[in-house]
Write a structure and sequence with these properties.
The complex is a heterodimer.
Chain A (H helix, E strand, L loop, with lengths): L5 H4 L2 H11 L3 H33 L14 H25 L3 H28 L7 H31 L11 H26 L2
Helix pairs in contact in A: 3-6, 3-7, 4-5, 4-7, 5-6, 6-7
Chain B lengths: L2 H7 L23 H30 L9 H36 L7 H20 L30 H29 L12 H32 L13 H35 L6 H15 L14 H29 L8 H24 L1 H7 L3 H31 L5 H19 L2 H7 L13 H31 L65
Helix pairs in contact in B: 2-3, 2-4, 2-15, 3-4, 3-5, 3-7, 3-12, 4-5, 5-6, 6-7, 6-8, 7-8, 7-9, 7-10, 7-12, 8-9, 9-10, 10-12, 10-13, 12-13, 12-14, 13-15
The chains are: A mainly alpha, B mainly alpha.
Bound molecules: protoporphyrin IX containing FE and copper (II) ion.
The site of copper (II) ion has 4 residues of chain B, from α7.
């Protein structure tokens, strides 16, 4: 094939596409890939939710002996803190976008603090509960769901720590903000999962 | 391009992945998709031989009605490890290898979207392969609960050790899932975002369509299996009660988790092989793929339907009647898009000028075994019939016709077809045809007798049986040994052709496709300039060019300046 027929066969649309496609930014791929990953990850939670619903609706004696139910007040406060942190992280991202690094760091740190508060609250709740992991399907699903979600919160906080540290490297975010954008996306994901979890476990008793 | 230009390319500083002179790179953490593809395929093939060896011990046991060759518990371990190795260590990695090698070349990309993730995903395969193999050596031996690992059988743990065959099995399967998810994210991103300029969806080869559809299944299904495996592991090690009926758990829920993934998984397996058929038939029949667009889209329809048929594996698990009806219907529905593909291939071959070399023969053999398996599949889809033959050799016959018939033969077809591209050498036709004949005869000899056996009522997963079943079992065992022997000409052919075969031209089959426009083997990063695709694939018999430039050479024209780095 000679290059002579290029002009005739390549139309303007294609030329534009070529110019655009030439420097496929790696960043774009990473964000796309990360979203694909999150969608897939959400199916694990979905499976756990479905399992929980099946167990709960079929159980004859759901609560282990001596257990009355779950206290909702503290978990509710925890929920409010975690859900609000989704807004806080959004502002942090906006600051970074406007290249206001200290604004970014302040709000980003605040998110981390709220996430840590959530984890602390959850630990306190776990320690005060009268049932364990092996106390029937109720105990099993409760610790599995909250524990698996808690692991995600912990991951989120650790990722935020890394991104915070990286903001002190000179010019780190000049080339793009993939790390921050994806961490924040992950955080929203963890939040949404928690809302479903809260409804399933605490509201529907 | 001619051989002269090949000569001009090879001595360049970029080594060509696949050429025999630099085999050491296959033992490195290379991020080149072609190296990784071959790494996957060779590693998987070694496990294929291992799994095959286990199968031959089993066939040795079954050649007589008594359990004499191996102990019953050993036999349980053998079929469990055979099934697990064949699926998680052979089939999935092998298909990932084909996808890795071919997809970037076929869509006109220089590599996968995430080359390092790609290498990491591959290197997990030997890791979990070793973990699984180690379970032969722990006290109590490997898992004996079959590749399903249904509780309560899988929860027994007679030795009481924390590290036992079953927990290692679960660990290996979970790691395999992580590796597959990493691969799936990579492949899906690559296909969505890195197609060459001009390659719209309906200019993409059918193989890439099937790979995309298969990997989407992985993304949706695997997490469910992971959820099931993690909870089973907790039951086994921590003592929770999710699936343990003694403690109030629900073992059938595990079956749902398992089959929600593992039914779609059979389409993860067969779809890329459908893709291979769609690539190979047009080349050797010299005709365009019949109904290309429909064939392409039917893969996606299969993806969708495959997610709603899983309960056909549980017709006999106390499943309520309405569920049986529903899933019987969806299962039958999924054979429609599958049937469309079969018709398209037949129509492609029909009236074509057939070139019956090894790749084409394997593809035809794979198509015929698939057809047979599809028919037994539809029989099984009907709940009343299934309840009759559930857990008998009929089911074993059905799925081996697909997995050992269509998938293994399709794999061989792909290897012969792309061998010249991968290595730059031609294989020996004679040895290839011998290999094909032995394989085809072996497969039918071992798996055909399983159907009458199943109808007579011989249960699967037993080490001994009633003497009335002996005749068919002897035949099957002989077929099994023949199948084992059939790998020898293949291995001989591959090794000797790779080392000293005739130099392959860039396009030995006069095939149409981006991978055939570059040298054999393709250079590092594949294309000097990204191809500009201007027509649909499979343009056999038309003189429309596939691309508007020559991707194997540096651009000489202003227009393409922006394309090459
Ligand atoms: C026309 C399409 C197909 C239909 C209608 C179909 C139907 C079925 C049904 C109903 C069963 C359950 C039998 C039982 O356990 O009682 C089954 C088992 C099985 N099928 Fe298929 N099938 C089809 C294609 C395939 C394909 C393409 C593959 C693999 C690539 C496959 C692999 C399997 C496997 C592995 C099992 C048995 C799993 C086990 O019990 O260990 N099938 N099939
Ligand atoms: Cu199935």
């Amino acid at each position: 094939m000679s290059t002579a027929n290029l002009d005739s066969t390549v139309d303007a649309d294609l030329q534009a596409q070529m110019a655009h496609g030439a420097e496929h930014e790696e960043e774009d791929h990473r964000l796309f890939g990360f979203i694909v990953f999150l969608l897939s990850e959400s199916v694990i939670f979905l499976s756990f939710f479905v399992g929980y619903i099946v167990y709960k609706t079929n159980a004859t004696d759901w609560l282990p002996a001596g257990v009355e139910g779950l206290e909702v007040r503290e978990p509710f406060i925890n929920t409010v803190v975690l859900v609000s942190s989704s807004f806080v992280i959004y502002f942090a991202e906006r600051f970074l976008h406007k290249e206001n690094l200290w604004g970014f760091r302040t709000f980003w740190f605040l998110t981390m603090a709220m996430g840590s508060f959530f984890l602390y609250g959850q630990a306190v709740e776990w320690l005060g509960l009268p049932f364990g992991f092996r106390d029937g399907l109720f105990g099993g699903t409760f610790y599995l769901l909250t524990g698996f979600h808690g692991l995600h919160v912990l991951t989120g906080v650790l990722l935020q720590g890394i991104m915070l540290g990286r903001s002190f490297l000179p010019n780190n975010y000049a080339g793009g903000e993939f790390g921050v954008v994806s961490t924040s996306l992950f955080w929203h994901f963890v939040d949404v999962i928690w809302i479903v979890l809260f409804i399933l476990i605490y509201v529907w008793q | 391009m001619s051989n002269a230009t090949l000569e001009a390319v090879s001595p360049s500083l970029q080594p060509q992945p696949g050429a025999p002179d630099n085999w050491r790179r296959f033992f490195s953490f290379s991020t080149d998709h072609k190296v990784i593809g071959i790494q996957y395929i060779v590693t998987a093939f070694i496990f294929f031989l291992f799994g095959g060896l286990l199968a031959m011990v089993m066939r040795g046991e079954l050649i007589t009605p008594e359990a004499d060759l191996v102990d019953r518990t050993v036999y349980n371990g053998l079929f469990t490890m055979h099934g697990t190795i064949m699926l998680f260590m052979w089939t999935f990695p092998m298909l990932n290898g084909l996808a890795n090698y071919l997809v970037p070349l076929q869509i006109g990309a220089r590599d996968m979207a995430f080359p390092r993730l790609n290498a990491a995903a591959f290197w997990m395969v030997p890791v979990f392969g070793v973990i699984l193999t180690l379970s032969f050596f722990v006290p109590g031996g490997p898992s004996q609960s079959g590749w399903w690992a249904y509780p309560p059988v899988s929860l027994q743990n007679p030795t009481g050790n924390l590290i036992n065959g079953q927990s290692l099995w679960l660990l290996a399967v979970a790691l395999s899932g992580v590796s597959s998810i990493m691969g799936a994210v990579n492949i899906v991103t690559t296909i969505f975002r890195m197609r060459a300029p001009g390659m719209g969806w309906f200019k993409m080869p059918a193989f890439c369509w099937t790979v995309l559809s298969a990997q989407m299944i992985q993304l949706v299904g695997l997490p469910a299996l992971t959820a099931g495996a993690v909870t089973l592991l907790l039951d086994l090690t921590v003592g929770t009660s999710f699936f343990n009926p003694e403690l109030g758990g629900d073992p059938v829920l595990y079956q749902h988790f398992f089959w929600f993934y593992s039914h779609p998984a059979v389409y993860v397996i067969i779809l890329p092989i459908f893709g291979v058929f769609s690539e190979i038939f047009p080349v050797y029949a010299r005709k365009p793929l019949f109904g290309y667009r429909v064939v392409a889209v039917s893969s996606l329809i299969i993806t969708g339907l495959s997610l709603i048929v899983w309960v056909h594996h549980m017709f006999a698990s106390g499943t309520p009647g309405w569920m049986r009806m529903l899933f019987m219907f969806t299962t039958m529905a999924i054979s429609v898009p599958t049937g469309i593909k079969v018709f398209a291939w037949v129509a492609t071959i029909w009236g074509g000028k057939l070139r019956l070399n090894t790749a084409m023969l394997f593809a035809l053999g794979g198509l015929s075994t698939f057809l047979f398996a599809g028919i037994t599949g539809i029989m099984l889809a009907s709940a009343p019939f299934d309840i009759h033959v559930n857990n008998t050799y009929f089911v074993v016959g059905h799925f081996h016709y697909v997995i050992n018939g269509a998938v293994v033969m399709g794999f061989y077809a792909a290897i012969y077809h792309w061998f010249p591209k991968m290595t730059g050498r031609m294989y020996y036709e004679g040895l290839g045809k011998l290999h094909c004949a032995l394989t085809f005869i072996g497969i039918n000899l071992i798996f055909l007798p399983m159907h009458p056996l199943g109808l007579m009522g011989m249960p699967r997963r037993v080490a001994s049986y009633d003497p009335e079943f002996a005749f068919w079992n002897v035949l099957a065992s002989l077929g099994g040994f023949l199948l084992g022997v059939s790998t020898l000409p293949f291995i001989l052919n591959m090794l000797s052709s790779w080392a000293q075969g005739k130099q392959a031209p860039d396009n030995p089959w006069r095939a149409i496709g981006l991978e055939w426009l570059v040298s054999s083997p393709p250079p590092h990063e594949n294309f000097e300039q990204l191809p500009i695709v201007v027509s649909a694939p499979y343009g056999y018999g038309s003189d429309e060019p596939l691309v508007a430039n020559d991707p194997a050479h540096k651009p000489t024209h202003d227009l393409t300046e922006g394309v090459s780095p």
